[in-house]
Amino acid sequence: MKIFGPKSLSALFYYIFRSISIVLLAFLTYMEFAFITDRFTVEDGRFDMKIPLIGSSIQGDYQFSDILTISLILIFGILLFYLLSNIFKALKETIIFNKGIVKNLKLLTILNLIVGPVLYFLIHYPIMHKTEFGNIHNLILLIIFGMISLFLTYVFKKGYTVQSENDLTI
């Protein structure tokens, strides 16, 4: 199977990541709708919300901080998978060095190097009032992923420049 182009691995990853972002958006919408319309039960200070179609439920402490944390993480996940799907959508084109992939890689870099760490600290300190760095590995992974996307951005930007110059000389 090819890596780039119309019928390739890139096309498969585009559909997978776009589907994940749509499912996360539907879940976030359902969850917020359920909280607004009181479609959940509360027992011993914990909420229990039934998830339709899969017969499962989500449970957690019925506190604003927990609900806000879940919502912010879902929004971050939706943005992450949406940007990844856009990157793979650009990679399934016949010319892979294009403006679309450079723009989406820049957005992915910003999401992982700026938005992710800010969100991490917001959730840990002002929202959840935690004082320990128990799961700092998540922050480290975000920064590593952001650095990789930063390097890829510059590689694809250089490739786009070379491709544009090559198109002008023909």
Largest sheet: 3 strands, antiparallel
Oligomer: single chain
Distance from N terminus to C terminus (CA atoms, Å) equals: 30 Å
Number of helices: 4
Strand content: 5-15%
Structural class: mainly alpha
Helix content percent band: over 70%
User: How large, in whole angstroms, is the Cα Rg?
Assistant: 20 Å
Average pLDDT level = 92
Listing every helix as H and every strand as E from the N terminus to the C terminus, the arrangement reads HEEEHHH
**Which shape, going by the Cα principal axes?**
elongated
Spatial order of strands in the largest sheet: 1-2-3
Poorly predicted spans? none
The number of E-state strands comes to 3
Describe the structure in your own words.
With 170 residues, this protein is mainly alpha-helical. 70% of the residues lie in helices and 9% in strands. The chain is built from four helices and three strands, in the order H-E-E-E-H-H-H. It has helices at residues 9-36, 64-91, 99-127, 136-169, and strands spanning 41-43, 46-51, 56-61. A three-stranded antiparallel β-sheet has the order 1-2-3, with helices on one face. Helix 3 (99-127) runs antiparallel to helix 4 (136-169). It starts with 8 loop residues before the first helix and ends with a helix.
